[in-house]
Specification:
The chain has eight helices and 13 strands. By secondary structure, the protein is α/β, with parallel strands linked by helices. Helix 1 (19-31) links the parallel strand 2 and strand 3 (35-39).
């Protein structure tokens, strides 16, 4: 049951069981031109995401039928490109990190204002990849190759599937090999210069990116994988792979 405002190019799936919050968010998004489907349970939300194309999922963590973190994980596995924002009354850092590590891109702690929600959506959607980009020149370091325009990553002869923010983070670093890039610069380039959220999002995304690249490296013949180096108190750096003898 999709309800549409003035324009419907961005579809939002709202999974929220609270009537007051649900009605408020649905009406606010509709008034700003988003197409909205409001679902009240996790199971129905997953079914709706499989049934209809979705750009954004606003996901409550405290659902009546299942834990929202499990829903986030299933959504991310089934729909790797969807933008997931979790809505939570759980202010403890461990719950927020669990949600982000399950695949969410961002979160809002209840109560939140519609103005902030809309600003977060605009920030993320501005960086949504254009449809069907043309392949461009590959940027290579060791056996890692990134096609920025086509948003493709390869390690050796195999393609590596990355989430949108993981790819964008890698794209920034691979274009500045060996250079120390500050946390502030990465947040501005990958998320938004007017980002409202926590910089912890950067650390979670970096950890996930490292795991995906390492898993890809271990799954195939030996490859020269660059190192994503943490610079404590500053940011990150992409270093060339070490020679086979470690020297």
């Amino acid at each position: 049951m999709w309800t549409t405002g003035a324009r419907d190019e961005v579809s939002v799936l709202l999974i929220e069981d609270d009537e007051v919050i649900g009605r408020h968010v649905e009406a606010g998004l509709r008034s700003h031109g988003y197409a909205v489907a409001w679902i009240r349970t996790g199971g129905s939300g997953l079914a709706e995401a499989d049934r209809s194309p979705v750009d954004v999922v606003l996901l409550d963590l405290g659902l009546p039928d299942t834990d929202g973190i499990d829903v986030a994980r299933q959504l991310r596995n089934a729909h790797p490109d969807v933008l997931i924002l979790i809505l939570t009354a759980r202010s403890e850092e461990i719950d927020v990190i669990a949600g982000l590590d399950a695949g969410a891109d961002d979160y809002l702690v209840k109560p939140f204002s519609l103005t902030v929600l809309l600003a977060r959506l605009r920030a993320h959607l501005r960086r949504r990849p254009a449809a069907a980009p043309e392949p461009g020149e590959l940027v290579r370091i060791g056996d890692l190759a990134v096609d920025i325009a086509a948003r493709r990553c390869r390690l050796g002869d195999r393609e590596v599937e990355l989430r949108p923010k993981e790819f964008e983070l890698l794209a920034v670093l691979i274009q500045r090999p060996g250079e120390a890039v500050s946390r502030e610069a990465l947040m501005a380039e990958v998320w938004d210069e007017n980002w409202f959220g926590p910089t912890k999002t950067l650390d979670v995304t970096m950890s996930s990116l490292r795991r995906r690249l390492q898993a890809a490296a271990e799954a195939h013949v030996p490859v020269a994988l660059p190192a994503l180096t943490t610079l404590r108190g500053h940011g990150y750096r992409l270093d060339p792979p070490k020679p086979p003898d470690g020297g």
